[in-house]
Amino acid sequence: MLVNKVEICGVNTSKLPVLSASKMRELFVRMKKGDRTAREQLIHGNLRLVLSVIQRFNNRGEYVDDLFQVGCIGLIKAIDNFDLGQNVKFSTYAVPMIIGEIRRYLRDNNSIRVSRSLRDIAYKALQIRDSLVSKHSREPTISEIADELKMPREEVVFALDAIQEPISLFDPVYHDGGDPIYVMDQIGDEKNQDSAWLEGISIREAMDKLSEREKLILSLRFYEGKTQMEVADEIGISQAQVSRLEKAALGHMKKLM
Fold first, then answer.
1. Are 47 and 78 in contact (CB under 8 A)?
2. Most exposed among 42, 83, 230, 232, judged by the fewest C-beta atoms under 10 Å?
3. Are strands 7-8 and 11-12 parallel, antiparallel or unpaired?
């Protein structure tokens, strides 16, 4: 993404206007009465919000023009649904909606496929979430969303987790002015724990006590991932014999370990 790009989708971002609070209220009042010119002024006067939000997604490898257009959809939804009677700034209401629209776009363009049923549940949950934000001017809890859907809380959590876009192990999660801390710095490696290391030694010692044929079968089956039929063809015996030898070898190893 070109972070310092000036012209996005034909819009010169360096010349975008900034509306005062009183002007925003005046335009909203006019828009509610059916003035489409006021609506267009509200959209154009708040494009800087979209511009500020898409900076958060500058490491996704997406075209800035695409993100800007999607963000504008979120802005328009926010303008059309904003309630002047609520004691909340428009930007406070609009930014989460713009972010949500961009996240939905990124999920829909994700190469990782999620089942249709899970996606449907997740999108319904997101729609209810937006509705509750508009109604209560705060972020709803998962339990509140689940109650609206009349579904168990666990199912809603599972569905929402399923459509989350993946992150890179090299994404920074914290920066204090020195070296950043990346996602990979906070992930443990269970393979390198003492128990795993000792278990590996025990397995190798137990295998050393097996016959050459048993060692060969277990090596082909569990280290090279071959089927019993493939092992049978390779060493020239029946699949039933491979199965019996494999079970006997594993039983022998279990006793030794």
1. no
2. 83
3. antiparallel
